[in-house]
Amino acid sequence: LSGLDPAQPYFQGTPIEVRLDKSDAEFVDVIHTDSAPTIPYLGFGMSPAIGHLDFYPNGGKQMPGCGKNPVSQIVDLDGIWEGTRDFVACNHLRSYKYYSDSIIYPDGFLGYACPSYDVFGTEDCFPCPKEGCPNMGHFADKFKEKIKNDFTKLYLNTGEAKDFALWRYKVIVTLSGRSKVRGYVNLALYGSGGNTRQHQIVKGTLQPDNTYTSFIDAEVNIGTVTKVKFLWNNNQINPTFPKLGAATITVQSGENG
């Protein structure tokens, strides 16, 4: 039984006979996309973990792409009617869109077990453990026999628009050069499964010999890494023409470590 952002008003905090609960089926997986408090945020979905696996994409409260202005939202890819409806309940309705996308991407939407979305942004919940990570959506039940805890909270990020699936990588870059500069570093990953766009991994002071760690939620499963493109810019003309390079770049897949 898959709960697509089960309702909060009149259900959250009620006994299990009233609301969705993991006792309702042999396996219950839940996608939380609109779990901000009803007042003042008008969240339609509930925040507590209530299934065997509870997924909180993008933290479960505010979905990327739902903050667009009304006009761009109404004339969305889905057409006028979908757009009007989405503007009213965009976060809430993302749950079924993620689910339908998950049918097309059986290897996508990996959920990382983590105590909170803030901790998901650190190295504490990466990569997947040896038994793997469950897939949010249609293929969540592949993980049914591996569930160990009473409740498992799982976090992941999604894209702003279709296609929503993203694949998580950790990148570690050690810079080389003679002097520190201010600017940013972008990386693009190339692999057997496809190539990513440029992702910014550090911005601010760039210090040679320093090591910088960041996560890339890539729009493609790159497979085996074949090449990494390194670009940096300091956004201003510098008469000393500073040069920066990468001494080493390490890319780690979240799926298999």
Automatic annotation (TrEMBL):
It comes from Atlantisia rogersi. This is Pancreatic lipase-related protein 2. SUPFAM superfamilies: alpha/beta-Hydrolases, Lipase/lipooxygenase domain (PLAT/LH2 domain). It comes from the Eukaryota. PANTHER family: LIPASE, PANCREATIC LIPASE-RELATED PROTEIN 2. It is found in: Cell projection, Neuron projection; Secreted; Zymogen granule membrane. It catalyses: 1,2-didodecanoyl-3-beta-D-galactosyl-sn-glycerol + H2O = dodecanoyl-3-beta-D-galactosyl-sn-glycerol + dodecanoate + H(+); a 1,2-diacyl-sn-glycero-3-phosphocholine + H2O = a monoacyl-sn-glycero-3-phosphocholine + a fatty acid + H(+); (9Z-octadecenoyl)-glycerol + H2O = glycerol + (9Z)-octadecenoate + H(+); 1,2-dioctanoyl-3-O-[alpha-D-galactosyl-(1->6)-beta-D-galactosyl]-sn-glycerol + H2O = octanoyl-3-O-[alpha-D-galactosyl-(1->6)-beta-D-galactosyl]-sn-glycerol + octanoate + H(+). Signal peptide: none annotated. Pathway: Glycerolipid metabolism; triacylglycerol degradation; Glycolipid metabolism. GO terms for biological process: lipid catabolic process.
